[in-house]
Amino acid sequence: MIAPFLPPHDCQKPYSIFEINSGVAESIERSNCLVWVEGEISNCKAASSGHIYLTLKDTESQISAVMWKSTAQKIAILPENGMMVSAIAIIRVYKKGGTYQLDIQKLQLAGEGARAKALLKLKLQLTTEGLFDSTRKKPIPHTVRRLGVITSLHGAALQDIIRVVSMRSPQTDVIIADSAVQGESAPIQLVRGIRLMHELATVDCVIIGRGGGSTEDLWAFNDERVVRAICACSKPIISAIGHETDYTLADLAADLRAPTPSAAIEMVIPDTEETSRFFLSIASRVLTQCMGFLRSKHTDFSRLTSRFGLKRPQRIIDEGQQTLDLLGDRMRRAHETLVHSKKAALMFAAGKLNALSPLTTLSRGYCIATKAPNIPLKNAANLHKGDFINLRFSQGSAHCKVLDIANQVSPPISPSP
After folding, report:
1. For 295, phi and psi rounded to 5 degrees?
2. Which residue, 276, 240, 262, 94, is CA-closest to 165?
3. Is the pTM of the predicted complex or chain greater than 0.90?
4. Residue 323: how many CB atoms within 10 A of its CB?
5. Cβ-proximal residues to 36 (8 Å cutoff; 6+ apart), any chain
6. DSSP assignment of 140-186, as one string?
7. Within 13 Å of residue 153, how many CA atoms lie on the same side as its CB?
8. What would the pLDDT profile of 12-65 be if each residue is shown by its tens digit?
9. Residue 230 neighbours by CB distance under 10 Å
10. Any idea what the Cα angle at residue 205 is, between residues 203 and 209, rounded to 5°?
11. Which of 23, 52, 280, 349 is 20 to 30 Å from 243 at the Cα level?
12. 3-state secondary structure of 214
C-alpha cells in the first residue's frame, strides 16, 4: 500500500527514512480519514502555544492525539487524565517522528457519541440538500420598524434584547413569540413561533435565540424541524443562540448569525442617537449651504436694485422716447433729401431722353416715310411708281402713292417756320 506513493528512485539506491514516512503520510492522509473514536485520556499536556497533546487508550492499545489551539478554544470540556471521551478526529502522520496521531476536531464526554454521530449525519444531509447555501439566504433589511423575537419570556436573552432595543431605538415595535428554548417540547414551540412570524405581514425581521448553556441545553436548535422551518420562513432570520463559541444547525440555516442576542439587535437596529447625530450633521450642512446661497442672491438683488434705471424707470422711458423722436426726425429729413435727389436725377434723364426723341425732330418740320409693313425708307431707289407709302408728321400721318421717283440727292431743305 505504501509503494505507489513512494517517489521513483534508482533500484540500486535505498529509500531515505523521510521518503518512507512521506509515503506513509500520503497514503494515509490522501483518503482524508475522519474517524469517531472513544477512549481514556492519559499523558494530557497543554503547551504554552495553546495546543493540547494527549494519548487516547483502551484496554488493548493506545494512540497519540493532538488538539490544536483553534479547536481547544471551542470545546466545552477541559481534557484531563482518566477522562473517558468521545472524539471526532482525522488520522495524520508526524513525519519527523515517524509516528501517526489523531488530529482531534471535536471532543466530548463519552456517552454523547451517538448523538454527535446523528448530528453529523443530519448536518451532511442538510448540506447536501443546500439548506446551508449562502445563495438562499435573505438580505437583512436596513430599516426595521417591527421586530419579531422567538425566545422564552423568562430567559435572560429577552431582557437583553428589550434593554438594547429601548436604548438604541425605542420607537421600534417588538413582537415576542414565547417558546421553550430547551427540553423535549422546545423544537415544536420554536417551529410554531417561526411559522407565526412567517404569517405576520408587518414583521420586517426575526431574531431567534437564547442565552448560553451546555450542548444539551442548546440541542433543540439542532433539531431538523427547526432548521427546515427557518429555511421556509419568508422573513429574514437572525440566529443568536448561546455564546460566541456555540454553533448549532440553526445558526447555519439562519440568514445571519449573531454571537449573542445583544449583538443581534446591534446588527439589525441602528442607534437612534447616532442616527440623530448623523442627520443633525447633514441638516447643519444643508442649512449652511442654503444660507450661503441666500446671502449670495441677496447681494445680487441689492446690487441690481441700486442701479439708477431700476430706481426711476419712468426716466428711462422718457429718455427712450426722446431718442426715438430724434431718430424719427433724422429719418424724415434723410427721406426728403433722398426723394429730392432722385427727382432731380429723373428730370435730368427725361430731358436728355426728350432731346433724343424722334418726336422732337418731327416737331421741327420733318416726317418719317415708311413702306409697309412699317419699313423705314432711307433711299428712293427702294421705291417704284405706284407704291404706297406712309408719312408720319409731328401731328398726324398721310397715306401716299408714288407717282415719280427722283434718284438725285437734293440739297438739304430747311424746315418752314
Report:
1. -65, -40
2. 262
3. no
4. 10
5. 86, 87, 88, 113, 116, 117
6. PPS--SEEEEEE-TTSHHHHHHHHHHHHH-TTSEEEEEE---SSTTH
7. 6
8. 567 666 776 676 666 666 665 678 888 889 999 999 999 999 999 988 889 999
9. 25
10. 115
11. 52
12. coil
Q: Where are the beta strands (DSSP E) in 179-234?
A: 205-210
What are 90's strand-pairing partners? 34, 103
Cβ 265 vs Cβ 165: under 8 Å: yes
Instruction: Give the containing element (helix H, strand E) for 235.
Output: none
The cell numbers describing 341, all together, are 435727389
Place of cell 487524565: 81
Cell of 202: 408587518
Q: Is 53 exposed, middle or buried (0-12, 13-18, 19+ CB in 10 A)?
A: middle
Query: What order do you get walking across the sheet with 388-392 strand by strand?
Result: 375-376, 368-371, 388-392, 397-401
Tens of pLDDT, residue by residue over 315-341, are: 778 788 888 888 988 999 999 999 999
For residue 14, give the C-alpha cell: 535505498
Query: In whole angstroms, what is the distance from residue 249 CA to residue 274 CA?
Result: 34
Q: Are 83 and 112 in contact (CB under 8 A)?
A: no
In Å, the largest CA–CA distance within the chain is: 180
Q: 95-151: per-residue pLDDT in tens? A: 777 778 899 988 887 765 566 777 888 899 999 999 999 899 999 998 888 999 999
Q: Looking up cell 484531563, which residue turns up?
A: 80
Closest CA to 226 of 196, 258, 257, 250: 250
Cα gap 396→386, rounded to integer Å: 23
* 320 phi, psi to nearest 5 deg: -65, -40
**CA-CA distance, 178 to 297, in Å (whole number)?**
62
Angle at 401 between CA 400 and CA 405, to 5 degrees: 115
Rounded to the nearest integer, the mean pLDDT of the chain is: 83
Locus of grid cell 441700486: 306
